[in-house]
Amino acid sequence: MTTVISVPPSLDEASFEQVIEQLAPLPDGEKILIDARHARWASPYGLTALLCVAQARRDRLAFALPEHADTLSYWSRIGFVRHAAELYEMHGTVPRARDAHESDVLLEITPITQSDDVHGVVGRIQQKAADILHGQLNLDTAITGAFGMTLSEACQNIVEHAGRGGWVAVQKYTYTKRLGRKVVVIAVCDAGIGFRKSLESSPGHRSSDRWDDGQALEDAVLRATSRFRHGDKGRGQGLAGIRRFVSRWHGKLTVRSGTARLAIAPEWDADLPLTEGLPFFPGAQMQIVIPERLGDAPVRAGSRGASRSRLGSRP
Fold it and tell me: Which residues are CB-contacts of 298 (< 8 A; sequence separation ≥ 6)?
């Protein structure tokens, strides 16, 4: 008997939780079909996280591709179908691959397994990102270098902490209902050991009574705690740099790991600072959203940040 996991019609950071909720109770060895036949839209986060689903299971899962032609064409163009075919037993018609430059994809789904992959990603996207960020999102030219550094740090996080490979994808689109502006979205996802186990591997780590995935996320993202020794200059500062970049450009950062999810959100988003007690999903899944600037006034950070006291937590 095969258990069918339904992919929601619109797959993004929030709705992907529906996939995890269905998947988490199932033991290894269970025959599973990930059913995306009725999917109509997916964000870079949704697609890279779907690859993590296959990466997280010992047995090879089956995957039913979208039936809608435009959806399937986009999933192929961004590289999902190609990578999924290496991980899943595929069902459905696989379209002919097309180049990502035909759409607003800045970087198609790209595997990250080593530092050389990170350098390649930044090199491939640099000029295209500059054109989008400055020409279409009206951001200062100074953002280009910072954007490349942020992308590099996010990808390097996979290399240093995941314990296995992951994926990155970058796209520009419009948040019509929520923001009414164009945005650039970076998704970096893996199904590795996650932040808690990574920090536990530090020689100086000491667990407390409240040590859990939520505490690990707060330590890593808010306090720049690292599994590396203090003498390893520059280690553990990647997430701090990402946080500063997102705050400066009035963007949003979310990181999910294990059973917790942390959000650093600006005024245009009402996300909870910290959500705990989620169904377990391995590794770390990160999303960075940078919005278009309107007018000549500089963007000022309005981030509420994440609560150190966990007042925004959900059981």
Answer: 140
